[in-house]
Amino acid sequence: MDRSRRKAKKRGLLRYSTRALIFTLIVLIAAFIFIAVPKPVLKFADVTEITLTDPLGNTSIVSENHYSLYVDAVNTAKPINREFAGQNLKTYGLNFTLRYETRPYKLYVDRDFEKKNLYIDNGAELLKVDSGYFERILGDPIFDTLYEHNRPPRVALTLDGASNTILPSYYQWQVRKADRKFHPARTDYLKGTDSYSFSISQDTVLGYDFETEPDVFYLFIYKDNNLVNSAKEPVNPVRLLEEDGLYRCIMQLEWNQRDDRDFFGKAAYEFALSADYPVRIDISAEEIDPGELLVIKASNIQPLEGLSVETEFDFEPNAFQEGNTRTVLLPVSYFHKENRSYAVKVSSGDVVKEFSVFLRPKEFIIQYLRIDPNVAAATRNEKSAEEMREKVYPLKPVTDPVRYWEGEFIMPVDGGRVNPKDFGKRRYVNNSPTSYRHNGLDIGHDEGTPIKATNNGRVLLAEYLIETGNTIIIEHGYGLKSWHYHMKDLYVKAGDMVKKGDIIGTVGSTGFSTGPHLHFSFTINDVWINPITIIEQGVPLIGTAE
What we know:
Layout: H1 2-36, E1 47-53, E2 59-61, H2 67-75, E3 78-79, E4 89-98, E5 102-110, E6 118-121, E7 126-129, H3 134-137, E8 155-159, E9 162-166, E10 170-176, E11 182-184, E12 197-200, E13 206-210, E14 216-223, E15 226-231, E16 245-255, E17 263-275, E18 280-283, E19 287-288, E20 293-299, E21 308-311, E22 319-322, E23 325-331, E24 340-348, E25 351-359, E26 366-369, H4 373-379, H5 382-392, E27 426-429, E28 436-437, E29 441-444, E30 450-452, E31 457-465, E32 469-475, E33 480-487, E34 489-490, E35 497-498, E36 503-506, E37 517-524, E38 527-529, H6 531-537
Parallel strand pairs: 12-17, 19-25, 26-27
Antiparallel strand pairs: 1-2, 1-4, 3-7, 4-5, 5-6, 6-7, 8-9, 8-13, 10-11, 10-17, 14-15, 14-16, 16-17, 18-20, 20-23, 21-24, 22-23, 24-25, 27-28, 29-37, 30-36, 31-32, 31-35, 32-33, 33-37, 34-36, 37-38
């Protein structure tokens, strides 16, 4: 009996010990779990703002959609010995604004992206963030500076061998990030804010030094907000400048997307060139036919500098200023002696240029014209001569200092019958023993055919005159005038401004005329010049298309 009791007691003690052991194990396991699994240090619901600050002090506000990303990254980070973190790290400020407090951390990014190392310093210890967060966190624009090609390749201008780096004023840029995908790069603190200005001379060699050659190059050059030249390849812009002054240059570059590089996009670079060139004097020709137009162009003359022209052509020329350029229109009359040279001397300050212009011999045709004696007597008499002296001659020296004309001049009548040898011919009327020079072109066409303004200008006269019938005179600027005689209708009046191609009247046969046609002429002041040359070639040194 005692033996049975002892066995029962022993079994009871054994059951008790087992239960105690199990309980102890449960307590120990719970304690281990409590200690091994860290409690969350941040609660998503408490976060009101998260900011990142780079080493330069630029701050980025994290999108609310990414709050959980940063909260989880901090909460799951594991303590690590600081010595194991390495040295190739970049430091960022990571600040959590909670409901009742702000918690600052330091975020370290390993520049070796292959390792995918992120660390958080909470002030007490260093924590390593799980690598699964690496690519997602580094997609934030604040980390753009970590990427080698986070901005357009560097561009430098080389002036006579000296290199000058310039930053873009604007760009759109894509960079391949840690996730190997392209993302827009942040640009609000990577743009140039300086003004880049360079003084140049005509001998300056300006080149380009590209960190990576662009796939597309454009250069636009402006002066006084007007585009004066452009280029599609990296040429020396100094060669594109015709005169001194201040030029604004905009260089637009593009880098295409390619498999072998981690970026693509476009950028604009702005710089100014201050050109101070010596005075340059050019003349349009040193051999010329009688009745043609010489043009003298002097460049790089400052507004207060003078220009003088001395010539043997018996004409008092004017110099007209556009920016730093002076233009002189010098007509050569068909009355000048041919087959000889005429001296032209141009000076500005201590710059003097002398030219010898040879007047080539030219044979002008002779025309014997028959006209109704009654018409001749009624239109060419003392009264008509007096009218010309009173109304027309005073207009010849009128010289507007503004160049109204633009580009090419056009024929005033479409499809008219024109003889290029008409200008300057010697004309005898009704067997008169004396001749006169025909000062323009007779453009034959049907009565009523529209007549167009040959170019822009100001109407000086539009009325009926005894000798020339319905007449229009237009000043195109710089003393260059077009003349229109014998018209049927007048559609403009004195003082009107006309544009090239405007209909100013119709073909007629009024005044001293043998039939419907337009007498069309050009003058510089009171010297007649060849209309065919103006129509076909424009004004020399100024061009036919600008």
